[in-house]
Amino acid sequence: MGLLDKLSSWMGGGGKVVTVLVLGLDNSGKTTMLRTLTTTEQEGQRQGPGASSVPTVGQRQENFQSGGVSFRAWDVSGAARLRSLWERHYRHCDAVIFVVDSADHLRLVVARSELELMLSHPDMSGRRLPLLVLANKSDAPHALSAPHVASALGLERITDKPWHVCASSALSGEGLGDGVSWLARQLREKH
Amino acid sequence: MGSMSRWLDVEAGADDININTLPTNVTFSDLQNDNEVKLIIGDFGRGDDGPRLKIFKGAMQISDLTLPDLPLGVVSFYAVDSNPRPQPVIAVAFSSSVHFYRNLKLFYKYYLPSVELNAGELDIWKQLTNPSNHNEVIILKLTESLHNMPHKVLSIQSRDFLTLTFDEQLEYLENTRELPKRRSGEIVCISSIKLSSVDKHAVSCLVLGTEDGEVIVLDSQTFTQTNVVNISPVKKTPFQIVTTGVYNVDYRITVATREKSVCLLKRDWKAGRILFNTDDHIIAIEVFTTDNSVLVICADKTFSCYNRKGRKQWSLILEHRPICLTLVPISHLGMTLSAVALVSGHVTLYDGKYPRDNIFIRGGHLLLKILKRTADFNSNSTGIESSEANISQRPWLIPKKSKLFLEQAMRERENPKAMHEAFQQELNRLRLLTAQTLLEAYRKSDNFVGAGNMEPIRLSAEVEGLGPVFVVTLIVHNTSSERAVSGLSVLFQVISTGYRVHTPYIKVPLIAPGNQLKFPIKVEEVFSENVNPDVFFRNVTGQAGDGSVIKVLLLKEGKVSPVLAATVTMPPTDPMMIPYDKLETSNFGQNISQK
């Protein structure tokens, strides 16, 4: 981080740092989404969006800002055998971004079951965490619309958490801004 | 269904899929090299629709190829070993040829070598084609003798000729001058075997079973015959081939035949041997790759398992006629289940001989089920009651009465009073010890959960970090549902001088009923000027020893003794994280030389 970035974070960021957990199945676009978010913040100084990313192993941390809130995002691997690591992060997170590949019709049920497992975990149930669901890859052919994804995931049954679903494209960055600004608004109200 | 299902149902609209095929025409392949397995079905078609090769991605049909004839087997394999990974080849077997598709385009046709014509048949045809014989009496006589020949040895031309009516036969003979040349062989089943490696993308070659009872192995590159073996010294007709092992090393080809027997072929065998015979017609077989035991479903509704030597291990009676059998490897649980489909539409998964799960499917439809990540196949399965019944039917394993047991029983009969008194004494001593330990824990406040007269508080601690600075998160949890707790404070007691606690004393605010408070506290491991070289050889994952214990005392206003106490054992600092300056000033090199 350069001096300019530090300055801007002191002046504009407001200093509030929240931890968000980025979850989703493998190949749903979590890493690409975070890279798009971080590069738009830093004016594309690093590699531009569109470059393909390798599957995440374990977890990585990324930082970005939106709506006066500094996000510390944990990008956790979505591979089936590493999904049991998700719950290690539940206790420390203030919000969850759940990324769904809306063109992967087959594994929507898997995403739904993982979401239900996550919401019923003792460290998550009963906490009023904002949940942002990104219906990612909305530009792909045969992609489902955001309301379709919401009903396929059974989001209407979540009553103890504020949730929001929006169609997005991690490659182009479309729809990400809306979702993240909703998340920032929720977190500002809460804190 | 009892509790929750192990499966997730895919709801993508697969209702309009109308499939009419046999189990041998269904296979899976990563057709586009995108790590997503596609379902490949050689469909017979219904009504006017001819046979087609259908490719499904998930529940969506992505491709459709017209096939020239009814398929009798579809196999997918890798024909070459190259980098990047080549596209798999789909081989579709028809009655006497195999068509190879790469990239969904036909690129090679293999025909079975033809067989010389029977001399008698040739003789009849010579007379038939002679125009002078074209009158009703002679033709009828010749057709009659053609009829009397065994159907199996006849050429296609003769068989076609026999199905015609007399007028058609006449017309046919008017136009035909040529004799049937050779009789082509007939393929009955198709399979593949890995050539030199069991790797998932390793090169395989095709294995064909013919109507004449031969097994033909085709070269993976040139698609020519490399090996032809008879499956049995006696005439047997194969209808299903299962291969295990690696062709260039050691392999077993297990063949189910129409004559109620299973034959076995091994490397370097000149002919196959009969492994075992069954009571009724075999419907399908499967072979476990681990121990080469053979599963068989038969027309008499039995499902049996034979070991590699052909001895029967167990047998089950099924409710309905079975139609299909397959193995379901579940790699993350390290087990292989077998699935048996019944004519009623039920599919039962078996672990060994015990049923574990049940699925129902309607005919002609495609059902996609994904196994849950958390699913297991232990005996307390969902939806199956018969498994418990099976277990209860087994006799209890009761060991025989040993000499030791008899002697003990004798002693008990001789002096019961003394033994009872000794037992009671031991019991009382145990109770006293328990009470003493409880009292001591109460007096020393060496417990982390408050109960009874004590404060309804639970104290727990977690240590995070690699060192030398750790974060100890204390969690003070008020377990009472109606009483709030106030006037608490936390005091850290460091036993050795090896640690420095940044905030050793914290006042705890009021905790509402059922709530908890967290206190992250920094604890730093302090290294003396001379770092002991042993520090570098401490096990990072283990404990640092006796000196690493920190006591956390929970105090209450107005009480002399602490309410609760927790002992935190600090992990040792990662050697990579030990401050560099300490290493610079340390002179442990000299220490060693002095020793």
Automatic annotation (TrEMBL), chain A:
Q: Does the keyword Flavoprotein apply?
A: no
Instruction: Please indicate if the UniProt record lists Nucleotide-binding as a keyword.
Output: yes
Q: Which PROSITE patterns match?
A: ARF (PS51417)
**Which residues make up the binding site for GTP?**
24-31, 78, 136-139
For this protein, the record's InterPro entries field holds: P-loop_NTPase, Small_GTP-bd, Small_GTPase_ARF, Small_GTPase_ARF/SAR
This chain belongs to the protein called: ADP-ribosylation factor-like protein 6
Keywords of this entry? GTP-binding, Magnesium, Metal-binding, Nucleotide-binding
Pfam entry (one): Arf
User: What's the family?
Assistant: Belongs to the small GTPase superfamily. Arf family.
Q: What GO MF annotations does this protein's record show? A: GTP binding; GTPase activity; metal ion binding
**Stretches assigned to coiled coil:** none
Instruction: Look up the record and give one Gene Ontology term from the biological process aspect.
Output: vesicle-mediated transport
Taxonomic classification, please?
A: Eukaryota, Metazoa, Ecdysozoa, Arthropoda, Hexapoda
From TrEMBL, chain B:
GO molecular function annotation: patched binding; smoothened binding
- What broad taxonomic lineage does this protein's source fall under? Eukaryota, Metazoa, Ecdysozoa, Arthropoda, Hexapoda
| Bardet-Biedl syndrome 1 protein GAE domain mapped to chain residues | 457-573
> Which Gene Ontology cellular component annotation is one that this UniProt entry carries?
BBSome
The record's listing under InterPro entries reads: BBS1, BBS1_N, GAE_BBS1, WD40_repeat_dom_sf
The residue ranges of the Bardet-Biedl syndrome 1 N-terminal domain are 7-266
Name of the protein described by the UniProt record:
(African queen) hypothetical protein
- Write out the transmembrane intervals: none
Gene Ontology biological-process entries? non-motile cilium assembly; protein localization to cilium
Q: Which domain of life is it from?
A: Eukaryota
